[in-house]
Amino acid sequence: MGRDKAHLDVAGTPMLHRVINALRDAGCDPVAVVGGDPDRIAASSVHYVPDGFAGDGPLGGIISALRWRPGEAVLVVACDLPLLSGADLGKLLAVAAPALDPGLDAVVAVTDRIEPLCALWLPSALAPLIGMHDAGERAVQRAIAGLRTARVDVTRRSMTNVNTPADLAGVNQTVGAAACIEHSGEHDRKHGG
């Protein structure tokens, strides 16, 4: 995109705020952003966590998030998922909630493929992720393949990411169409239609 995707507008709301809202809808508290511009993040009313591996890709961000909340599970999602739903995130949390299975390292979202940038990372994942990172691994997809995971089906819509101006235009069109349908239904209810 050539610029910070987190602050691109989708129907008048920055993508970052859409993701924060989905996390809060799922019951996540506290919510933090790993890396990025601390001043812009502070304006979003969330915690800022420095990325201990800035410029090194999302695997370093996941490690930074786990280090921020030692001994706790952390739900990590990419900032470029503006259609993410709290309901889908809740499915990931529900799998781990009963007992935080000691044999599990992560609960990962799945559509027609694994979505490792939408996953609940358990404390047991930290040491293996650090080891893989220290060995030169940077791809989250390959790193998660070496862990014990549970997979949870989520809607493809929630996993719509924005990587290009065309993706952004498509998401804006989708959100705009949904708003028109929602508004139309509200109009009908108010006017007996």
Strand and helix layout:
Elements: E1 9-10, E2 13-14, H1 15-25, E3 32-34, H2 38-42, E4 47-49, H3 58-68, E5 74-77, H4 86-96, E6 106-110, E7 114-121, H5 126-134, H6 140-145, E8 149-153, H7 165-190
Parallel strand pairs: 3-4, 6-8
Antiparallel strand pairs: 1-2, 5-7, 6-7
Helix pairs in contact: 1-4, 3-5
- Shape call: globular
Largest sheet: 4 strands, mixed
Fraction of helical residues:
40-55%
Determine the mean pLDDT.
85
Q: Beta-strand level of the residues, as a percent range?
A: 15-25%
Number of helices: 7
Q: Strand order within the widest sheet?
A: 5-7-6-8
Distance between the termini: 43 Å
Which ranges are low-confidence, i.e. pLDDT below 50, for 5 or more consecutive residues?
179-193
Structural notes for this entry:
- There is one protein chain.
- The chain is an alpha/beta fold.
- It has helices at 15-25, 38-42, 58-68, 86-96, 126-134, 140-145, 165-190, and strands at residues 9-10, 13-14, 32-34, 47-49, 74-77, 106-110, 114-121, 149-153.
- Helix 1 (15-25) packs across helix 4 (86-96) and helix 3 packs antiparallel against helix 5 (126-134).
Summarize the structure.
This protein has 7 helices and 8 strands, in the order E-E-H-E-H-E-H-E-H-E-E-H-H-E-H. The protein has helices at residues 15-25, 38-42, 58-68, 86-96, 126-134, 140-145, 165-190; strands at residues 9-10, 13-14, 32-34, 47-49, 74-77, 106-110, 114-121, 149-153.
What labels describe this entry?
193 residues; 7 helices; globular
